[in-house]
Amino acid sequence: MTSTPDAASRLFAQHVPFAPTRSQCFDAARLIAESVLGSEPEVSCVIGIASGGIEPARPMADYLKAPFHSVTAKHNRCDAPWQQATGDVEVLVDDTLPDRFGGTVLLVDDIAGTGATFSAVTAALTGRLDDGAAIMSAALFRNRGCARPPDRWAWTVDDWVVFPWERPHHGLTQPLPPLRRVSAP
Predict the structure, then answer these.
(1) pTM of the model
(2) Which phi and psi (to 5°) does residue 55 adopt?
(3) How far is the CA of 118 from the CAs of 18, 47, 71, in angstroms?
(4) Alpha-carbon distances of 170 from 72, 160, 167, rounded to whole Å
């Protein structure tokens, strides 16, 4: 278990949540995977951060023909919309994760709210990296308030996002703009 405090805040316009479709999320995952092809060192595995990162990580691993693994990281108190992250991230690495990683480990989550989850998971995995190995982070969404953005993301948002693999939202939602390109810092 690893815990990392972080004081950054997510930004929310508090209009109505964004509601990507499963197809939009799959297309974004594919574009992100395409954007890391040719990375040096080559992507050796994809790790989905449970629970939200599992859905986009699986198609990325398939596209990259890389093994898929998962870790669990939690910091939200509940699933209620527009809540600020605590900044205190608990990472649970189970026994099925390999002891050592070479190449580039691609960490995937559905959204980077503050960057604290990626920082905490990276810290939990750093001791498992071989010499020359690297960690790269990717998220479908980056909140505009994210202090430490991932290495790759599809959309930048300033409101809550309701994912198709979460409990349905019973109010108004707003569509996403078309995805034109993958972003990087």
Answers:
(1) 0.87
(2) -60, -50
(3) 22, 11, 11
(4) 27, 14, 9
pLDDT in tens, 82-120: 565 656 778 888 888 999 999 999 999 999 988 999 999
List the CATH number of the domain containing 52: 3.40.50.2020
User: Quick check: is 180 in a domain?
Assistant: no
144 assigned to some structural domain: yes
For 30, the enclosing helix (H) or strand (E) is helix 22-36
- Whole-angstrom distance, CA of residue 58 vs CA of residue 125: 19
Residues contacting residue 131 through CB under 8 Å, at least 6 positions apart: none
Its domain, for residue 103, covers 16-77+84-157
The C-alpha atoms of residue 123 and residue 118 are separated, in whole angstroms, by 8
